[in-house]
Amino acid sequence: LLRVTDQMVSQYSRLRDRYRTANRLTFALVAVLSVLSLTFALSPSTLADWLSLDLSAAKSIVVLSSATAFVFSLLGLVFRWTERATEFGQTAARCSDLKLALREASDDATAGSLYRKAMETIVPIPDSAFVGLKAHHLRKVAASRVLDERPGLPGWLARLIVFWRSLRRSEQRHDSTGD
């Protein structure tokens, strides 16, 4: 249960980060497009001069950027990136607390009870994301082991070593099956 819970902490943290990034990018895009739209709507001739366009083309750009900002703000509302990031972050924290409780559990029955109780309160991982999240977790664990062996190694190089080892193992399996 401890290994599964550790994997869940990693998966929910990754989902939290993914949705938080989507929210921040959407917000930044809407803010930039809104400021540009407002600036050039108040002075379309400035845009026309700046881009060496005629006034009607500059007005079309203002309309397009305004519409794009509106669409991205709607996407933020529909996909609820902020709320999803919060939900996944809270679930990651609950799983982290569960991991600590499982380490302190006196026996398997207590650990099982704690695990079942926690599973009733968490947001499920989307099925479509599970395999990718598990692969990310396993790569993270493998990179951590590489760093344990070589503490001075940069993280990106540890991930590259894990990738390389994975390719070599895959090639060795392919050669041994005779395919």
Sheet/helix structural class: mainly alpha
Total strand segments: 0
Query: Portion of residues in helices?
Result: over 70%
Strand content: under 5%
Rg, Cα atoms, Å: 24 Å
Tell me about the largest β-sheet: none
Order of helices and strands: HHHHHHH
Low-confidence stretches: none
Structure in words:
With 179 residues, the protein is mainly alpha-helical. 87% of the residues lie in helices and 0% in strands. The chain has 7 helices and no strands. Helix 4 (81-104) packs antiparallel against helix 5. The radius of gyration is 24 Å and the shape is elongated. It starts with a helix and ends with a helix. 15% of the residues are buried.
What are the defining features of this structure?
179 residues, mainly alpha, 7 helices
Summarize the structure.
With 179 residues, the chain is mainly α. It is 87% helix and 0% strand.
Secondary-structure topology with pairs:
Blueprint: H1 2-42, H2 44-51, H3 55-79, H4 81-104, H5 108-119, H6 127-149, H7 155-177
Helix pairs in contact: 1-2, 1-3, 1-4, 1-6, 2-3, 4-5, 6-7
